[in-house]
Amino acid sequence: MVISLSSSLSFINLTNSKSPISEFPSKPKTQLPKSLSSTVCCSFSSSDLGFQCKEPFFFQKGRYPHGRRFKFTSCAIPGFDYGNFESAQSVLEAAAVLTAIIVVHESGHFLAAYLQGIHVSKFAVGFGPILAKFNANNVEYSLRAFPLGGFVGFPDNDPDSDIPVDDKNLLKNRPILDRAIVVSAGVVANIIFAYLIIFTQVLSVGLPVQEAYPGVLVPEVRPFSAASRDGLLPGDVILEVNGIELPKGGPNGVSEIVDVIKQNAKRNVVLKVERGQQDFEIGIIPDENYDGTGKIGVQLSPNVRFTKVKPKSIPDAFNYTGREFWGLSSNVLDSLKQTFLNFSQTAGKVAGPVAIIAVGAEVARSNVDGLYQFAALLNLNLAIINLLPLPALDGGTLAFILIEAARGGRKLPLEVEQGIMSSGITVVIFVGLFLIVRDTLNLDFIKDML
């Protein structure tokens, strides 16, 4: 058997109640004409990788120095449009980001072992059957069928290995500190990588800053819809609905419009609209959905505009990067805490590779700059989740090492340790496969086929 350090992306948390993925201009949108459930079709396909949005999308100036920031949100919003892949390139970009993060994580383990002279036998991206492999310097490098993470294998208990069982450079024979360094190196690699990604963003494109304006923007009006029929145009800004003034920016204005439209099928809804320099009223009679709710056939988004803040010096760049990095990290930690405290409400928002790539593709399609934030947030999630003391995660292996240290250097029986780890890996595989199936079935084009 091969001892391996594995990392699973099955448990990437898409339920971040306060996830701060900085601020970059993707387009949160609300699609009224097509219901994904019994409610009006309200899908915020915005920019957050995988982290729930129960709290406001915006962050106050007190937390971030450059103004209010758009929240990176995704399928945490009910009805997220997983499957609207208009560009194969955006899917490939998201998949490449995910693969790079896995490779970085496993490279951390690999380099920590290699630099200490510890024997390594395998380096794998994915789990399960091997799709492609090659050998170099007695290490098998492979790409595997299930993209749930990856692992670095050590020949400590491999019956086919010709390395003596008492070799001092086997991982199991190294001191506790050496082993702890190897196990934790993947997490450290992801944290460093996240920082470098943010630093690169700060230097190359700057940090997007959002300024909110009154009303709700109408990016798209579908042909032959109620909105099109009654005179609403793309680019219009809705200032009031049935005499109710909409708040400045944020998702609340979108929600208010959605609620009014849902409740007024086949009844006149009066919208105060800003078009260019003119304000006027439009009466729209929503069409009726199959469930009796109203729809008008538009996409809606908060009325916000974005600018970029770039550092004036290298110290400024480090300052911006540090603030962004700590803001993201603290909110990822907070989201993880909320997930465990409210597991029954948030378990359904945990995402697998399909959902992660769907979110990343949406980000890439909206604004390629958003991939910086997507990658940074994924790195931090992977790092923090892998520190959890669960079998099959790095934190589980570290827990065994800490138990050994607490026992004065006496390890747990090998059968006990391997039994626990094998059970954990089995659970990870099954949960990962479940998430892949579930998230795939949530893709719009799959739903259309069913």
UniProtKB/TrEMBL annotation:
Q: Which residues cross the membrane?
A: 180-198, 419-437
Q: SUPFAM superfamilies of this UniProt entry?
A: PDZ domain-like
Tagged with keyword Kinase: no
Which PANTHER family does its entry note? Answer: MEMBRANE METALLOPROTEASE ARASP2, CHLOROPLASTIC-RELATED, REGULATOR OF SIGMA-E PROTEASE RSEP
Cellular compartments per GO CC = membrane
Annotated Gene3D superfamilies: 2.30.42.10
Localization terms from the record: Membrane
GO biological processes: proteolysis
Which Pfam families does this chain map to?
PDZ_6 (PF17820), Peptidase_M50 (PF02163)
Residue intervals of the PDZ domain? 205-277
Name of the featured protein: PREDICTED: RIP metalloprotease RseP
- Organism annotation: Prunus dulcis (Almond)
Alphabetically sorted, this entry's keywords are: Hydrolase, Membrane, Metalloprotease, Protease, Transmembrane, Transmembrane helix, Zinc
| MF-aspect GO terms | metalloendopeptidase activity
Family affiliation: Belongs to the peptidase M50A family.
Which InterPro entries does UniProt cross-reference here?
A: PDZ, PDZ_6, PDZ_sf, Pept_M50_Zn, Peptidase_M50
Q: Per its Swiss-Prot or TrEMBL entry, what cofactor is needed?
A: Zn(2+)
Membrane disposition = Multi-pass membrane protein
Q: Does the keyword Heme apply?
A: no
